[in-house]
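queue> holo job accepted (fe (ii) ion)
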Amino acid sequence: MVTDWEDLKYHSGFGNHFSSEDPRCPNSLPKDQNSPQICPYGLYAEQLSGTAFTAPRETNQRTWFYRILPAVFHEPFSPVKSDLITNQWDKSEPNPNRTRWNPFDIPSIEDEKKDFIDGLATVCGAGDPCSRHGAAISIYACNSSMNDRAFCNADGDFLIVPQHGALRITTEFGRMLVKPEEICVIQQGIRFSVDVDQPSRGYVLEVFDNHFRLPDLGPIGANGLANPRDFETPTAWYEDRECEFIVVQKYQGSLFQSKLNHSCYDVVAWHGNYAPYKYDLRKFVVVNSVSIDHMDPSIFTVLTCPSLKHGTAIADFVIFPPRWSVQEHTFRPPYYHRNCMTEFMGLITGKYEAKEGFQAGGATLHSCMTPHGPDSACYESAIKDECKPMRIAEGSLAFMFETSLSLALTHWSMKSCHRVDHDYFKCWSSLRKHFTGPK
Ligand SMILES: [Fe+2]
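queue> job finished
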């Protein structure tokens, strides 16, 4: 039994083919074949396919589980009502406005017990899990552990960004501790449970099309940004426990639940390359201009989920970590711009460099072609700053989900969460002319 989550062991590397056995059952992985007539220890063999059987070798992902009972052993699914999780984007009017949310509420346990599933609410999204194209952004805010309850997303992959409170995540592959300033990815179809020790909050990016991968590095070379060795995947861990256990499955945007008479975390050994992972954002190797000009934020891409359009992501996960700023005679904050992509930003900790009023645990949305950029105070200060080498974003960590999709907002995010900052547009209302006129 694992008692100390801080001491968990992980497999190192991104996209590797791992082999993992719970040390209590040595040699539980079958030798030389995937599906022997009888598996070691009397285990069942079960494959989890993360790509089509026929996907090209370089993108093909699957894992073989060796488990006490196969996942098929469950009662029929029945619908679960959820007002907060949705993939139906036609329920709200289009809204191109720059939107900022004050920190999302974390429910008090005295008021209402909420676990990760209860506390998951969709903010915005586009596309359709049925046609396997699209993305959704959600907030989770919870105060309780998922006791004998697992979640499984049949619609896509989750990239989870904890902002407040560490998550103790049990998966069919083993366990991982994910703290703020770390992220994890739990792919389509993987059952997992989230335990918390305190009221907790964070952000979730869900993609329907594809799995996340590391961005190409081009002329940067073989190293930099997120290095593959820094990604960590759980090692096999099982429990042989009979109990009333619920699996909640998101399927075509709706929730369903099914009863098991045992814990679903009964995988004694597994091997394969379709497995969840975590990453410590403080290990990101920042690359930037060391001469002039503000580079595009794509230089800060941690993970990308590619679309079929070359070089264009369904969604990128981008961070703005503490770093040196050294560009000469340059307006150093982000430039003013309009973008064919849509930008959702969150703040994990500290103060964001380009704007007052953006708070940790809150968010902003700058939609497709909606103008945005630094606020007036930031502009006035940056044009006077001496461009000497300096540390920026010290003690802070902002991130962006950038998508080629045009996102629709939910009723919860615009109305019922009551967190929209209706004065956000005023950030830019005191911008003044500096035009000197013709000379
Ligand atoms: Fe932008």
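queue> The chain has two domains: 5-281, 285-427.
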